[in-house]
Write a structure and sequence with these properties.
Layout lengths: L1 E2 L3 E6 L10 H8 L5 H9 L3 E3 L2 E2 L12 E6 L2 H9 L5 E4 L3 E6 L16 H9 L23 E7 L2 H12 L4 E9 L6 E4 L3 E4 L2 E7 L9 E8 L3 E8 L6 H8 L13 H5 L14 E9 L6 E5 L4 H19 L2
Parallel strand pairs: 8-15
Antiparallel strand pairs: 1-2, 2-5, 3-4, 3-5, 6-7, 7-8, 9-14, 9-15, 10-13, 11-12, 13-14, 15-16
Helix pairs in contact: 1-2
């Protein structure tokens, strides 16, 4: 899936279950937010291509096709979506913008999330922003947080700020602190995890630990609160690999509560009971970030509280700990 100001582009590869089905029905299965009636109209308007050629709604799927769907989007519609995003701005000047990123919003457009990203919102709200070379869709983006991760994030407002901040990240001069709630309680009160990380060859969107190869990855953690079966940890990544904290904590047997990708045995040993607050995402929050300001060259720290879903989970875990302590 791709995006521009005029169209959303979906690239679809049929599954075995799709073989023999009508094209319009298959498209609805893969893009459920679009009605079959609307999809039929797109097919009739030659906005759906099979192996690069237009076809009919009644076309029967063979299973080896490459399907491309072009869905028109009006600029006004996109701007309305962006205007409705609730993204708190913690700080701004002529050099940087600091936000409290909500969970559930992608940092920049990708195959799965085309609209309402942080990069698009920042450009809409603050005007033209610099983008790393070769990535025009990442306007202002100096570093990223996973879509489900909440918390503090820095956006560069000009090219000098972009280069200066990127250099700080490269030299590992920026200090980041995260809160993570994990299954089980780590053996050590604090420790350093140094497992190399690289892409999972079976799924290039996921990462994995490598005994040999992979990129150097270092995460310091300490237990802030022991809940018996679960723990609240402070994590400080010294490197900036994709999904680093999630992969490292799962690697020592303590995957994050709510993580849908990276799991550990303690997840089955200590599942959350049904009466626990629902955590619809992984329990990871970017608590603070310390940078050297690109203009003043002074150290400055930005911090934000965890959102309500994170706070509710922590409160519930504390209640369980107190109940167990009281024997009730």
């Amino acid at each position: 899936m791709d995006v521009n100001n005029q169209e959303t582009i979906y690239d679809i590869k049929p599954t075995k279950e799709d073989v023999g089905e009508r094209l319009d029905k298959t498209l609805h299965k893969h893009i459920p937010k679009l009605s079959r009636t609307f999809l039929k109209e797109l097919i009739k308007k030659n906005k759906v291509l099979i192996n690069g050629k237009p076809t009919k709604p009644s076309y029967l799927i063979e299973g080896n096709e490459e399907i491309t769907v072009y869905v028109p989007i009006l600029k006004d519609e996109h701007e309305k979506i962006l205007s409705e995003l609730d993204i708190p701005v913690l700080f701004e000047d002529e050099w940087i913008i600091v936000i409290d990123k909500p969970a559930g919003i992608a940092v920049h457009p990708n195959d799965a999330y085309k609209y309402a990203t942080i990069a698009q919102w920042a450009k809409w709200k603050f005007g033209d922003l610099p983008a790393p070379e070769g990535t025009p869709e990442r306007t202002g983006i100096v570093h990223r947080l996973d879509r489900e991760t909440s918390g503090v994030m820095i956006i560069a407002r000009n090219w000098e700020a972009m280069r200066f901040l990127k250099q700080q990240f490269k030299k590992r001069e920026i200090e980041k602190k995260y809160l993570a709630v994990v299954y089980g309680v780590p053996e050590f009160v604090s420790d350093v995890i140094e497992f190399p990380i690289g892409k999972d060859p079976n799924n290039l969107d996921h990462m994995r630990i490598y005994e040999e190869g992979g990129k150097e990855s270092v995460t310091y953690y300490e237990i802030l609160e022991d809940f018996g079966k679960w723990a609240l940890c402070l994590c400080m990544p010294k490197t900036g690999r994709t999904h680093q904290i999630r992969v490292h904590m799962a690697g020592i047997g303590h995957s994050l509560i709510g993580d849908k990708i990276y799991h550990s045995p303690n997840e089955k040993r200590f599942p959350l009971p049904e009466d626990a607050p629902s955590m619809e995402r992984h329990a990871l929050h970017a608590l603070s970030i310390t940078i050297t300001h690109p203009k003043t060259r002074e150290k400055i720290t930005f911090e934000t509280e965890p959102p309500d879903d994170f706070k509710k989970l922590i409160s519930w875990l504390k209640e369980q700990k107190n109940k167990n302590r009281d024997g009730s």
